[in-house]
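sanity check this fold:
=====
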Amino acid sequence: MNFPSPLIRFAPSGLRNWLARTCQLAALGAAVSLCATALALAKDSDEEDEATPKPALPNIYLDMRTIYTTLPAGALSVGFSTPPLLATLSNLSSIATLTSPSSRSIAVDLPVTVDVNDRLSVYGGVSGTTSQSGTDPWTAFAATSFTLGFQADIYQQNGGPLPTLTIQSNMTRSISDAPLATTTYNTILEADYALNADETRGLLAGVQYTRVLVDTPLASVKPDTMGYVGGYYQWDNNWKVTGRFGIQSFGGAQLLNLTPFQSFTQPIVRFDLDRMDDNDNRLFGVTAQVAWTPKPSYQLTVRTPLYAIRN
């Protein structure tokens, strides 16, 4: 498999192994999904008059997200990521100064997403950021990271007694000439239990694990682990609201024998408001998140998918 040239250029030790494992998982998910689809088509072939035509091509779209974030002094936060693209500690330059004033940033995520089928999606793209710390002026907007990842349903409820299980995994690599460039590995496992046949009401529970590797032995970032519960409701007009409440445990960041960013275990809350179409494709979304680090960090995300193909 040929990886993109930027990945080869920036990849740290062990990245290719992770990508190989990720591709194997994605291939396995695709194989399972294709087998399930083939069985369904075989069953439907006996009822051609009632069969619904299948789309010839998968959904392909630019899942553009614009993110405004505030962060209190002396804190780092990973937070929720569904799907994740900039849920990473991609810039640790503030560790070098041993001080971290309050800051704010505006980021734009541009992942190209392909919904291979109703079980598997793959995505990859770049992110750009501008930020402002303390009394300093805003920095110039520049590309800061690129991401590769996938999302797959391990099991689908389909009216059964067990919830849908979804795994999402991605790798985010910072684009930086600084010595504290990072690579972030993020994995989410979520259970979705629908309360009705239309799957417009349901309960959620999940766990997220994030690991950040720094390109120097002089600095380190401890893992971030989060568990959460939540639920969702979708009206007949296809507006959908989702809420999640969890506990985030961050191990802190260290430079030499100093710890400029302390560990914490604090609550985190996220609310999503999405406009869907009749086929459950997202047309527009707004996300509000508050994470205590231990002081509150606020994040507002506007999601505007740009479809090349929409089924």
